[in-house]
Design brief:
mainly beta; 247 residues
């Protein structure tokens, strides 16, 4: 059960969900806060029954070698903001990055929080990348700079990664095993020096202090691909990023 409380961070008020864990940031007020929240009406995501329109405000790379269409749709399911659907060929899917870099992991940041809640129909036959990254049209193919969580086809395990100049540090073991047709909450939190990864409120066990990309500005990013010749779906229930600069 949610239990939101306010904390002061460098003169700003940050709201955290004490009912889950104190590094789950749900909002904030103050002059040094940058807040991004994914909302389908802001990005003009198409009606569920329409096809062929990319969401506004994103750099979008589409792969659809197989039958069907790779796209982002609105959803009629209660509590679901949008659904990503892949065409039916291995590595068909979408690479989405918010236009314009916004977030950074320099030491003058009081905190950076990333959280997304997703439901994948077949996790072991899908690839998923979520996090903050430098601009790249094939995030899962190897991004140069980013902080992210990923799960690759062939397994249901999830890992957290910090990557700088194409050199990465990965959590020493899987943070959690993901399940089909189940909402999972993937998060990370940067406190100015270390990155903490979470899946469903459980901390990943490896706190990253190396290969944190501290010399580039990054943008909210997601890549979702089919891992076999079958269409895959990924529902998004919430997605937000919050940064507090040091004053």
């Amino acid at each position: 059960m949610a239990n939101v409380i306010g904390q002061r961070v460098n003169g700003n008020i940050v709201y955290v969900d004490r009912g889950s864990h104190l590094k789950r940031v749900v909002g904030g007020v103050g002059p040094d806060i940058i807040h991004y929240e994914f909302l389908p009406w802001i990005h003009n995501i198409q009606d569920e029954n329409a096809t062929g329109t990319d969401p506004e405000g994103f750099h979008v790379t589409v792969v659809e070698a197989g039958t069907g269409t790779s796209e982002v749709d609105q959803s009629n399911s209660i509590g679901v903001l949008a659904q990503i659907v892949t065409a039916a060929n291995e590595n068909d899917g979408l690479n989405l990055q918010l236009v314009g870099p916004h977030f950074e992991f320099t030491s003058n940041q009081g905190l950076v929080y990333f959280g997304i809640e997703i439901d994948i129909n077949s996790i072991s036959t899908s690839d998923i990348f979520v996090g903050l990254a430098a601009e790249d049209t094939t995030l899962l193919g190897g991004v140069a700079d980013g902080v992210y969580l990923e799960s690759l086809d062939g397994a249901a395990t999830s890992f957290g990664v910090t990557e700088k100049d194409s050199t990465e540090t990965t959590t020493s073991s899987s943070i959690a095993t993901l399940s089909d047709d189940t909402f999972h909450f993937l998060e990370f939190y940067f406190d100015g020096s270390s990155v903490y990864f979470y899946v469903d409120g459980t901390e990943g066990g490896t706190i990253h202090t190396t290969n944190i990309p501290d010399d580039v500005v990054l943008t909210p990013s997601i890549q979702f691909l089919a891992g076999s010749a079958v269409a895959s779906t990924c529902d998004i229930r919430q997605w937000r990023v919050i940064q507090v600069a040091r004053t």
